[in-house]
Amino acid sequence: MRNWKLRTRVALAAALAIFLAVALVGVAIQLLLARDLRRQLDSTLKQRATDVATLRKTTATILASIIVNARFAGMSGGQLIHRLRP
Length: 86
Fold this sequence. Notes:
mainly alpha
């Protein structure tokens, strides 16, 4: 490196600085995007879990109501199943 001209050394130093800056920005963007996507996924999964729990509770309540009403109407289990089929 002793024999290189000043212009060459300055150009190499500038190229190295640019490379390091671009690499650092790339890593920072990757980390920020990964964190943001993970937060969005967590939020979506929590919302879906809540929706499934609500649907399960509602479905169980509706089904219980149908069974109770069918029993009061004097339907047998087979008749009820036949009626519930689409």
